Amino acid sequence: MGKVILITGPARSGKSEWAETLAMQSGKTVVYVATAVSDPADEEWQKRIQKHQQRRPQDWLTLSVPIELTATLADAKPNTCLLVDSLGTWVANLLEQDEISWENTITEFLETVQLVAADMLFVAEEVGWGVVPAYPSGRQFRDRLGMLVRQLGVICDSVYLVTGGHVLNLSILGMPLPPQKG
């Protein structure tokens, strides 16, 4: 199995930049797995995507994977480093799944992560530090992403928190919680 690394933190904290740094340091062929869907009608969104693209080295392969993330991971070659940016966008893309389908998706995802020979870097937003969203889909998104980050973090080799202009290695500073039951 390859290295599995989670990079989490608030919006605009530098999560993606830290993940890109780690990917470059891997010495492997980097595959950038973009979970966002490009929308030419949304000029501001296009500018965000372009900013990310301009930061990345030209020799990185970019895959657009808004839904089939697990299959993409399963197909990864051992000598590669996959940088998945971001899990929050992937969760948002799957919000219409019912609870049983969602649980199946996450179970398959976590099982696959533990079997892949490639290195994997996952960027994930921290969404649970604020108020409880006032609308059901906001609560569903927050709860699903929060649980996914927790479950993934427990099986990762390293977990980093990027906030306040600093990178903290939580794998050194803390200890994982036991797996959650039910």
TrEMBL record:
Belongs to the CobU/CobP family. Catalyzes ATP-dependent phosphorylation of adenosylcobinamide and addition of GMP to adenosylcobinamide phosphate. The keyword Protease does not apply. InterPro entries: CobU/CobP, P-loop_NTPase. Pathway: Cofactor biosynthesis; adenosylcobalamin biosynthesis; adenosylcobalamin from cob(II)yrinate a,c-diamide: step 5/7; Cofactor biosynthesis; adenosylcobalamin biosynthesis; adenosylcobalamin from cob(II)yrinate a,c-diamide: step 6/7. The active site is at residue 52. It is an enzyme of class 2 (transferase). This is Adenosylcobinamide kinase. One of its GO terms (biological process) is cobalamin biosynthetic process. GO terms for molecular function: adenosylcobinamide kinase activity; ATP binding; cobinamide phosphate guanylyltransferase activity; GTP binding. Its EC number is 2.7.1.156, 2.7.7.62. CDD domains: CobU (cd00544). It comes from the Bacteria. NCBIfam families: PRK05800.1. Transmembrane segments: none annotated. GTP binds at residues 9-16, 34-36, 85.
